[in-house]
């Protein structure tokens, strides 16, 4: 598989402190690749280094088969970057801003309209940048990052600071937008979001990539098992404890941990345990993060 972005033994030291430590990363062309990590893990430093805003202290970085450092204007045209704290031309309206960005790259103006439409920004097109809502600002930042149809798009916490409704609508947009063959690298600390959006995620912890795989594979490999919640079986606790070793009592019912939900149900039914309203849940990326790093993610 062709690689869009690659880092080998990448170390970045800032002010004597090692921020990235022998980091390895491969991002396949066309993938929607998430980098998840706590606040301070090194996500923004990693992006800055991958795009050539910051020099690697040691190790190598390849971006579209080139070295991004020193800054290469030809390469910059082929990538799009949404910064964590985007800055806009404050005197301009939204559409003027996107046109200004587009003109830097000689993008046809028809394509500006297309991007505004796709990102649900047409209604706000003539609003001054300073008057936009949080969700509109993030979508404007996204429009500005992808209006020139980059081959690789870097999104640094595109949904941070949004209220849950705006976050959800931006996530749906990201998922539904026709990225085509675009490669997307995206950082977040919202793990349920990464689980829904990403083909592949890397867990970045204290400057190192600890694991990289699809969310589903990470969850399966972590052997988190399955939890079955039995809301109607609280009065049968002793019997259920006799059948399974991992049984807990919760406010909503009995919780049974198992590796095989089908066999568990067969056993429960055979023993006359109430299974009406049972809820089966798999592990989540949140659980994987905890099992891999030993900590909850911090924001
Ligand atoms: P994240 O984006 O995952 O929150 P950052 O890459 O912003 O993490 O930061 C990683 C670490 O590097 C933090 O401890 C931060 O304080 C430090 N750091 C980042 N940039 C600088 C800088 N310019 N000067 C000093 N320390 C920095
Ligand atoms: Mg950051």
Essential attributes:
6-stranded mixed sheet; single chain; nucleotide-binding; ATP-binding; ABC_transporter-like_CS; 33% helix; binds magnesium ion; ABC transporter ATP-binding protein; alpha/beta
3D architecture notes:
- The structure is a single chain.
- The protein has helices at residues 43-51, 73-76, 94-104, 109-118, 134-146, 164-176, 191-197, 215-221, 237-243, 261-270, 285-293, and strands at residues 3-14, 17-28, 32-36, 58-63, 79-82, 152-156, 183-188, 200-205, 208-213, 226-230, 247-250, 253-258, 279-282.
- The model has no long low-confidence stretch (mean pLDDT 92).
- The two termini are 34 Å apart.
- The chain contains eleven helices and 13 strands.
- Strands 5-6-7-3-8-9 form a six-stranded mixed β-sheet, sandwiched between helices. The protein has a four-stranded antiparallel β-sheet with strand order 11-12-10-13, covered by helices on one side.
- It is globular.
- Helix content is 33%, strand content 27%.
- A hairpin with a 2-residue loop joins β1 (3-14) and β2 (17-28).
- The chain is of the alpha/beta class and 299 residues long.
- The protein binds adenosine-5'-diphosphate (ADP) and magnesium ion.
- Magnesium ion is lined by residues 43-44, 84, 156.
């Amino acid at each position: 598989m062709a690689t869009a972005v690659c880092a080998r033994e990448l170390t970045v030291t800032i002010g004597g402190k090692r921020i990235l430590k022998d980091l390895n990363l491969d991002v396949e062309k066309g993938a929607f690749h998430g980098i998840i990590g706590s606040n301070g893990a090194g996500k923004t430093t990693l992006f800055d280094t991958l795009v050539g805003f910051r020099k690697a202290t040691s190790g190598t970085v390849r971006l579209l088969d080139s070295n991004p450092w020193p800054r290469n204007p030809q390469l910059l045209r082929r990538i799009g970057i949404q910064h964590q704290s985007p800055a806009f031309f404050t005197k301009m309206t939204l559409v003027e801003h996107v046109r200004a960005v587009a003109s830097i790259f000689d993008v046809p103006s028809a394509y500006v309209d297309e991007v505004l439409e796709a990102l649900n920004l047409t209604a706000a097109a003539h609003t001054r940048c300073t008057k936009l809502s949080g969700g509109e600002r993030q979508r404007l930042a996204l429009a500005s990052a992808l209006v020139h149809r980059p081959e690789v798009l870097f999104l640094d916490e595109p949904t941070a600071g949004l209220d849950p409704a705006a976050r959800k609508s931006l996530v749906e947009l990201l998922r539904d937008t026709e990225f085509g063959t675009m490669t997307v690298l995206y950082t977040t600390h919202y793990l349920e979001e990464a689980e829904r959006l990403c083909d592949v995620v890397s867990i970045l912890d204290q400057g190192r990539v600890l694991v990289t795989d699809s969310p589903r594979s990470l969850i399966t490999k972590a052997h988190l098992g399955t939890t079955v919640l039995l809301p109607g079986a609280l009065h049968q606790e002793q019997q259920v404890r006799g059948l399974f070793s991992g049984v807990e009592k919760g406010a909503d019912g009995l919780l049974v941990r198992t590796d095989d939900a089908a066999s568990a149900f067969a056993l429960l039914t055979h023993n006359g345990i109430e299974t009406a309203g049972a809820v089966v849940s798999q592990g989540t990326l949140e659980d994987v993060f905890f099992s891999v790093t030993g900590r909850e993610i911090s924001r």
